[in-house]
Fold each of these.
Amino acid sequence: MPWRKFEAKDVVSDMRVLILIGLFANTFNALAQNRVEVYPNDRLLWSEMLMHAENGVIREGCDWRGQVVYTTQPELIFAGYSTSAFDLAYSVREGKLIQGDSYFSDAVMYTAEVRGNELQLFIGDSTFPLDLVYTLRPHPLDDGSFILYKEDSISAFDRVCIFRGMPSMEELYALLLSQALL
């Protein structure tokens, strides 16, 4: 087999291919960040996925054939696959989950508050420690994953579910509502 002569145009051609692969990988990675998946445990098996949120649509299961439970938009959560005002189920304002489009304080169902690197969910329009329901913390061993714990616990026995990807506030509430956790 004869050795071919090393030429600069071959290097440029190879660099173009590597740059194209890099751009494709970065684009794919950016698109994958838009999806939030919910798992029951640390194994993160595709077949065990409970729910997923993609482009504001909350579905059951792991693929596009799952039933659509909620559709989210900024500050709004709609029932089913709809964005009609007639299907508006909840509003999210300043981290608070509100029934319908109400502006009364008694319509506030849950309140979210960021404390350090944690997100805590409280019952009603309160941030009192006795009203704490859940705490969302970063997974210690898996970047990009978050663990939902009961109350302020750190015990593995008090894990409720694991999120791969950080949901928006609307998606978080919709994912928890669709699992009957709220």
Amino acid sequence: MKTLFRLGLLVLFVVSCNPKPAPEPDPQAEAAAWQEAREAALAEVEAANAAITSLSREGQFEAAGAYFAPDVIQIITGQPEIRGREAWIAAQRAAAEIGDWSLELEVLDFEFFGDHAVERGRGVQTFEANENSPIPSMQLTGDYMVLWQKTDEGWQIRYDYVVVQPPAGEEG
């Protein structure tokens, strides 16, 4: 009897020590959660784009700069590379001294990777020169690719690459 009792206790001990198998992942639930996270990220990126263009147009460059990582790198056709948020803010201030800039962005593709995302789009930038401008008023179209990174402050631009098409009549 003692042996049977001990054997019963041993079985109870072994069973209680074995962890329960993890539930099988539900691929449909995982796919739905991923799609939901992707859509939320895209909405946040589009809201950030709208805020950046609006704040910049209003001259609030520090507020617009908050959407850029502190060590952002921006490369735009025909311009020197911009490295860092503070350099981006300074470049925006310098540009504002020669006229009014307006930018419209359209997201064409969006790839989501969890805490990173790649946005590809097209933009139209309109420039109205003032009396201090060394360049004339114009409208430029360009394609862009941005690497976004999710941070504690929200989605921020880590890399921004813009290819500007030559103005009409200046092909080549």
Amino acid sequence: MQFKKIIAAIDLDDDLADGVINTANSLAQKDGSKLEIVSVWPLMSVMAPAFSTDVAVSSVVVTENVIEMHKQGRQESQEKLDALCARLAPNATAVILDGDPAGAVAEHAKETDADLIVTGSHQRNFLSSIFQGSASRDLVKEAPCAVFLVTKAFAKKQAGRPG
């Protein structure tokens, strides 16, 4: 099977990000595919979590200052993604999506008619996945195309191979 459009879905702060990009880039080069590297920025809700000295976590009404901080954080994420893309897959396009990771990536894959999504999976045990969730498991359920999961072991193995 030849892939025409591949999406590498990463969390910018995840240690598997490089492995996911390298894997997706390798597949894209093999098939001459278009590669897009995406990361997801969370939506801002009407109430934002905040910390105060008398209560551990509280909610505050979103102010213009909070909105500006949200926009600035998104812009910094785009710049970080652009730099990562330039370093590891210079022919790829870098895109920040908004929303829930699994839902946003699946919807983007559907809209862009992607053939494959490459993403990382930490292979958490049952108890950890209950408390921390699993974005990769949710993505597999929602994806409109094939999903290639890059594990730590696979990323390590790929890193050891000559380019």
Amino acid sequence: MTRLAARALLAAVFWPSLFFLWFLAPLAFLTWSTVGGTICDQMETRAEFLAAANGTIPLLLLQNLLYAVPIACLVVWSRLFPDPVRMGRVALSLKLFVIAGIAQALWAYGSSLVCDGSGRAFFSPLWQVTGYLPIISVALNLPLYVLVFSLGRAFSMRDDIPEDDAAK
């Protein structure tokens, strides 16, 4: 497979996954996670709350694996077409992605621990601080989205293909 074909294949994976997974999937996951809000009223014991919070872990893992597809495409692109400036930006986007993923996972896990709303102190009040993590998540995700979009655009453009690859 030529480098041009590999670039085209990665672009065919990157752009749909960026659109569907990063722009539409958060709405689906948010809708899916808010369905559990009616269950919180029925919980009575600490074990029930802990079981509900631990039940969110597989969904969080699936969500982060799906969100990692565009980042994985950027890493493969940077390996196929090494450029020190772009490799630094890919590394930065990877770090931002990991930090944002941890913040989102802590928020989802912590919000499921404090969902009772009836003032019962089953868990440390520190978990209530996780209510501020969406602000941190937005502050991390906005530059991440811009960085990943610009890197994807730069990697998938034909005008930066070396002449010897274009002739093959």
